[in-house]
Amino acid sequence: MIPVILSGGSGTRLWPVSRENYPKQFCDLYDDSFLGNTISRLQNLDNPWVVTVKSMEALTYRSLKEANVPTDNVLYEPFGKNTAPAVALMCHVFSQRGQSDEVIGFFPADHLVFDQDRFLQAVSLAEEAAQKGHVVTLGIQPTYASTGYGYIEVTDNVVSENSDGLKAFKAQKFYEKPDVETANRFIEEGQFYWNSGMFVFKVSTMIEHMQKHLPEVWEKISGVDKDLSNLKYQYANVESISIDYGIMEKLDECVCIPCDMGWSDVGSWDEISRLSEEVPSLKVGSGASVLGIDSNNNYVFSVGEKIVGLIDVADLIVVDTPDALLVSQKHSTQKVKDLVKDMKQQGMRAAIEHRFEKRHWGGYEILSDDDDYKAKKITVDPGAQLSYQSHAKRQEHWVVISGKAEVVLDGESNSLGPGESIMIPVGAKHRMRNPGTEPVVFVEVQTGTYFGEDDIVRYEDDYNRA
Fold first, then answer.
1. What is the b/e burial string over 180-191, where b = at least 16 CB atoms within 10 angstroms of the residue's CB?
2. What proportions of the chain, in percent to the nearest 5, are helix, strand and coil?
3. Among 108, 245, 336, 396, which residue is least crowded by beta carbons within 10 Å?
4. Where are the domains of the chain?
């Protein structure tokens, strides 16, 4: 089976840690990013593929590289069009590669699974059913009457089962997120499971369903050339629609494997708070040292090391980042998306971006941004280099903090060590290289008339941006 990761999302529900330009799947809320954990889980099957948007290229590249997955195992959509076009595109590409009879599994990038053995057992049974032409989904045993998940109703008809006690049932119907009364009824009746968003099927099977149920979407996607040269043109007119609504809800027959694998979509700060209480073994990446007086049942998360004092408060969720602070009553954090919407309408940059950015070659953090100067702390990975570039409206002063750096300035190489510096004049061609085995860290101070990232002319680049 070929595992495929769907890596989308707007990054709003876990603001201020997750943001549009740095969405949830890349956040290190636990011992690794969500995407990193998903890659590791799926490597038990095979090196996974990833489908994501072009704007997430640098972040995805770094995640694959860190996991030793080939960095060309990825399809970049020109823009997000929801899950059905993403699934269609992946199926089309595999079909063009002569892999129509392959079974593929689609898995969200931003979920947690605690019982990986049970997960792999369920996927193995799903592959067996998919080989017979079924579209298979993994259903999650509900633990409460959630109104935040879709549900799958199963019949008593068993399609297949394995020695681990798992059974694949014929599913009767998919339901959108219900109201409270309906959710309670689902729990009482016992034949309903949460829709995990994990699907397994043969490429040829899904293509047939696309042709029948989403013919206009498939017409556009199937017209994409093998070299993807016309992908942006074809994608521009594709309908934005989910695989659940576009395909799964329209199928006359599909299969569901109910299982309890310690699953969570970690869809809100309330869920993160719950997990911290119920799964104490989780290595939460918070830097907060919390001191409380007459305070109880609070959850605090801090990106950096910070002492947080709480006095006479209860049932609060506090999330701290260098440029934003969220304080919410527990059970109210679903409203975070409304808060982010308001911030966007007011033009607040913190709604969509952090003061740091990850790049193919490393990354940077903005230390100060004023009218007449800008300062950054920049890290270059071992063996990596920035593009050979120039600026029309600013000069830069580089001071090496650690590592062994090589600076190319107008064609001349300069070796710099910790404490050494170099001035980059306006208009000069320059690049920073890291020829060593340790990261190079340097501080860049920009002075001039404009400090935007678009004041760059690239002459050479390892990542096709020249």
1. eebbeebeeeee
2. 25, 35, 40
3. 245
4. 2-264, 269-350, 356-460
- The CATH classification number of 2-264 equals 3.90.550.10
- Provide the edge-to-edge strand list for the sheet that holds 412-416: 412-416, 405-409, 430-433, 388-390, 457-460
Residue (of 100, 114, 105) closest to 46 by Cα position: 105
Q: How far apart are CA 288 and CA 307, in angstroms?
A: 6
SS3 annotation, 25-56: HHCCCCCCCHHHHHHHHHCCCCCCEEEEEHHH
Q: Name the pairing type of β-strands 263-264 and 356-359.
A: unpaired
pLDDT at position 368, please? 95
Q: What is the pLDDT of residue 436?
A: 95
What Cα–Cα distance (Å) separates residue 109 from each residue in 196, 218, 264, 265?
12, 24, 12, 10
Question: pLDDT under 50 in the chain at which residues?
Answer: none
What pLDDT was estimated at residue 441? 98
Q: What is the pLDDT of residue 11?
A: 75
Query: Which residues, in sequence order, are CB contacts of 31 under 8 Å at separation 6+?
Result: 37, 282, 283, 285
Place of tokens 């903090």: 401
The answer regarding whether domain 356-460 maps to CATH 2.60.120.10 reads yes
> Tokens 């696309």 belong to which residue?
210
What predicted TM-score, i.e. pTM, was given to this entire model? Answer: 0.92
Dump pLDDT digits (tens) for 388-445.
999 999 999 999 999 999 999 999 999 999 999 999 999 999 999 999 999 999 999 9
